[in-house]
Amino acid sequence: MMITKSILRAAALALAFCASSAFAVLGYEMGQKLEGEPDGTHLFYGLDYQSKVDAYGFDGVAAYYTDATGVCTVIAFSSVEEGLGNGNEHRLVADSLKERLTAKYGEATRKDDFLMPGSVWDEPRDWVTAIRAGERHYGYIWKVVGKDVASIRVAVEADAVTLQYLFSNFGQCQKEADKEL
Fold it and tell me: Could you give the CA distance from residue 46 to residue 62 in angstroms, rounded to a whole number?
């Protein structure tokens, strides 16, 4: 049996989740002020946080913030090889994250696993193509999981699985962002 990079990554994510309490917000807190110059719009701050990214098994982590609200959401992504196009690697990584999050926060509020009506990408081998076309959705959502965390989302993209923590100050963050535009 061949062990793919995605399977090893899923195992690393699962172990990292169990080993670290900071994983819950990927090293960030709601309202945390960030130093340094943000990318472009002054609303999105990309981090070169390599040691922490490697420890969690993610390829990248970014925090969205405004000066007034501080950090209001954190997004991490883990690249996934397309493989045979049937999405097995994608589901393995997403489901592994789901299991770890369930152990910490309880069952997900919602699971998305559907193909849009009328999609031509309805064969198992077309699973990733349907994701790429925006016609298939797969992931999990937890709502109001703590004092500061309004929701958590695990989502499958065509070439990655993302993990997003949306803090309870996100609405205010959006209002502040609109003012700055």
Answer: 5
Model pLDDT, residue 7: 42
Amino acid present at 69:
T
**CA–CA separation, 140 vs 164, rounded Å?**
11
Query: DSSP string spanning 138-181?
Result: EEEEEE--SSSEEEEEEEE-SSEEEEEEEETTHHHHHHHHHHH-
| 8 A C-beta contact, residue 23 and residue 35 | no
In the chain, how many domains are there? 1
Rounded Cα distance, 107 and 61, in Å: 24
| Beta strands, E only, 30-69 | 44-46, 60-66
Torsion angle (degrees, nearest 10) of CA 36, 39, 43, 44: -90
Q: What mean pLDDT, rounded, does the chain reach?
A: 78
What is the predicted pLDDT for the residue at 180?
A: 66
Dist. CA 127–CA 138, nearest whole Å: 10
**Angle of helix 88-105 relative to helix 5-19, nearest 10 degrees?**
10
- pLDDT per residue over 17-55, tens digit each? 433 333 347 778 898 887 655 554 444 554 434 345 555
Q: Which domain holds residue 123?
A: 5-180
pTM: 0.77
